Structures are given as structure tokens and as C-alpha cells.
Amino acid sequence: MALSDSDIVFQSYGRCCNKDAFFVDFYDRFMNSSDAIRDRFKNTEMKQQRHLLRNGIMQLVLHARGMPDTKLRALGDSHSRAGYAIPPQWYELWMDALMATLRQHDDQFDDSLEQAWRRAIQPGVDMIRGAY
Ligand code: HEM
């Protein structure tokens, strides 16, 4: 039986998520995409933030595998205009930084795996962005 998007994405994340360098490189890239984004993390303890993001991406992957959306709703609340007030258009930069970092760290990454990642996690990302 063919592996689903969520299966191959789960395996891809497994090849990346135990390397701190993956999250270091993600935030370097994401913060380099705009000074306004870098500014949002100026008071953030990045070592802690990398751990939180490791779990956050796992929540996106688990959501694609049918897990309830409770954790993503909480992230929607924290990122909304009442919280960190993250402009919806920044999520595209977030996604592009994630894809570039996966390409860098997953030795099995290719264009078809990128499409699988985007199909799998876009609904969860849209849920967080949509809570704005
Ligand atoms: C905090 C995940 C998009 C900025 C967090 C946390 C997680 C997380 C797990 C820590 C828990 C919390 O505070 O609620 C995600 C995921 C995203 C995303 C999965 C994409 C779907 C973004 C974007 C920005 C952003 C686009 C734009 C700058 C922040 C900030 C914090 C944060 C400023 C708080 C940092 C601090 O505590 O100093 N995010 N995030 N996030 N996120 Fe996001």
C-alpha cells in the first residue's frame, strides 16, 4: 500500500527533529526573511523557543494524522491579535523557511516531498493563521 502524505512527512520530520541545528537554522532563516520578524524575537529565549517549536511542528504533523485540534487552537489564540498579533501574511514566510530548512537537513528531501509537507500541514497552519 502506498504511504500517505502524513506517513512520509512523519518520517521526514523524524530525520530532522532530533537535531538542534535544524531549529537553529530554521530561526536564522525565518528571522532573516524580515527585520520586523526578527524584532518579534528580540526578547525571546531562543533555546527554549527551539524546543517549543519542535513540539509545535509535531502538533501540525499529528493534526495531519487525525489528532484533535486542541493544541493548534491554543497556538491560534496565542498568535492572534489579542496575543502576539502575528500578521497573517507572515505565515507564508514561516512555511518557506520551514521548507528550505527541511531541504537542508533531510537527505531524502525532494520536490515531491515538499509538496507532501505543504499538503499535510497547510490546514493546521491555516487554523493558527485564521485565528488572527
Ligand atoms: C511562540 C509555534 C508561526 C512568532 C510560539 C510557540 C509555539 C509556536 C509552539 C510557543 C507557545 C506559545 O507561546 O503559544 C508556531 C507555529 C507557527 C508559528 C507552529 C506556524 C504555523 C509564527 C509566526 C511568527 C511567530 C509566523 C511571526 C513572527 C512567535 C512569537 C512567539 C511564538 C513572537 C513568542 C515568543 C516568546 O515567548 O518570546 N510559536 N508559531 N510564530 N511565536 Fe510562533
UniProtKB/TrEMBL annotation:
Protein name: Globin
InterPro entries assigned: Globin, Globin-like_sf, Globin/Proto, Mb-like_M
Every Globin domain range: 2-132
KW Membrane (keyword) present: no
Keyword annotations from UniProtKB, A to Z: Heme, Iron, Metal-binding, Oxygen transport, Transport
Family designation: Belongs to the globin family.
Pfam name, any one: Globin
Molecular function via GO: heme binding; oxygen binding; oxygen carrier activity
Source organism of this protein record: Saccharospirillum salsuginis
